[in-house]
């Protein structure tokens, strides 16, 4: 069946009279694998979640929305994984139909689907919400939520208000033609999906305001939008301009300032201004991003490292150590011991990215085994197990769209930007990531914010004296590596001085 085009003009959303104050309402975070799925949700007024997510939302709908006779709306805050932003608000307006097969969506693991009504469609950066901490999720920022995470009433109302009042310059509506084309190509490749599309269309007829024709909207002013999975027009606009300030909810002060002038290392001139304790040399930009850093290897292993926050990356650079989850530590330790058997001819590189930052922040090399006896209380969260020494080679902010073309066959052909912590990257693709990381001309790095994170660390240590002992242990573990790094840095500075004279 041919899908009838439906109207998607911006006049259907973001109405000034949309209510944001409720005595009874429930709110949930929805995390989408891609904007393709959000596009289809807006187009057909439906959504499909995981089995766990559908069960949770269906229970909420039957228990509250129906019993209170429609006086308890259920709102869903949508965000695409690794995009660094939220993209809209929809209302669940019907129960989950668990009999519906979800092959229509980009991935086949979704189960069941339900009708909804979209109220707000706009791009709102994470930093507008990052102050909202969820007590029902270990006091993590709402921007660090998993799919189907519930948000309490007063916080949900605050999120609605922020969504409504934020003056956005971009939205997924800007790219509707682009996603229409992608959808058509996918349906053409897999004829079996046409029948499923028909089922979704029939279900969406029962939802609120199911319009009749699609009209793409292109705003007059479309500034940069950083994300690993964004529409073609906005991605092209981004690729030609430097990183801007207000798109991240999980970065230091550099995310609130305009791009600074570049110094000789290719990073902002303030990178070397951060002052540190004499026992650490982590903020010295001459220690990293060396032009002679090798990017071609016959034998090497590569892993993605996802950090909960930049605080932890700061400490890793400062003390030349890292701590992972039990699973991650075991996986990396096994890889290191396998590499040792090759007599040091198989380096292990780690590509670091902070959750929801929309970028990678550096490359480090694992230079020692995991010490599973080390308590990881030193780090921001207590769930890490063991720690191991690392040597940082590259420290710079590189946006996700520089890597999003790299698809991992060992991870369901997902873009490398959609990787979980300790995801391995194959040799050829890892070498390509090294090359991109080395050659990218960055304007910012976490080095710009080292003083800021030093202060945060000192405040934390002051609040919890127990951490001082752990900090000392970490410093002892990294002492040998720091000595090597400092000497390398001094030699580098001497060579640089000779060239200048």
Automatic annotation (TrEMBL):
Domain YTH: 25-163, 300-437
Annotated function: Specifically recognizes and binds N6-methyladenosine (m6A)-containing RNAs, and regulates mRNA stability. M6A is a modification present at internal sites of mRNAs and some non-coding RNAs and plays a role in mRNA stability and processing.
Protein name per Swiss-Prot or TrEMBL: YTH domain-containing family protein
Entry's family note: Belongs to the YTHDF family.
The species this protein was found in: Brassica cretica (Mustard)
UniProt biased composition (Basic and acidic residues): 184-197, 458-471
PANTHER family, A to Z: YTH DOMAIN-CONTAINING FAMILY PROTEIN, YTH YT521-B HOMOLOGY DOMAIN-CONTAINING
Gene Ontology molecular function terms on file: mRNA binding; N6-methyladenosine-containing RNA reader activity
